[in-house]
Amino acid sequence: MLFSFMLLYPITAIAQDYRDVVFMKNGSVIKGFYKDFYPGDSLRMETIDGGVFICAVKDIERIAKERTSIYVTNIQDEDLLPKRAWRPAGAKGYVEYGQDINGSDQNLVGYSLIVGAGYQFGHHVYFGGGIAMTRYEYESNNLKLVTTNNSLPLFAEFQYNLLRTRITPILGCRAGYTVKGFKGFYFNPSVSVDFGLTPRLGGYILVGYSLQNYNDNDVSRKAEGLSLHIGLHF
What we know:
The protein is mainly beta and 234 residues long. The chain has 2 helices and 14 strands; from the N terminus they run αβββββαβββββββββ. The radius of gyration is 27 Å and the shape is rod-shaped.
């Protein structure tokens, strides 16, 4: 069987539409491209994740060929490509900038620089927290006099990736309290679209609803409206 494999390899090496699949006696399946074969001794191949696999011939059950199109059409299949899945588990951070267009009676607009960090649990669920450095501009006392206020919301955050593909919609929610400036409850549910550059690095566009409670001259108010942000995660 292994001798037949050696005869077939020069033909398939020319046509790069195929790759080698080695079935081990212990149940493991190794996929890649044949490099060296030493009869009665060992086999060396380059795996699909760029590594090098070497095994003894006596440990091989059989060797087959597989069309590389299977990799393209089933990239989300963990059995085929577990090491290339997007958004693997691990620490995650991001930097985000955007504008909150609030439809309050003071025509309040916020500009935010947000930094967050947390942990990605599997491919879908993320928990973390962050801080938003927000500069608000509004018309004070309806006198058309523009006033600024620098606020500092602290928040906890949840995200859920709907897909495991390179481009995926994400449902998110931030909730916390503003400790400086417009002190009060902070809430920001959102929907974003993430564009993966690598399994861990990517950019995104976020659209959401923003809510900031605060007091103005002992009058309880809330700034609420539309959030438009862009960001980079790593």
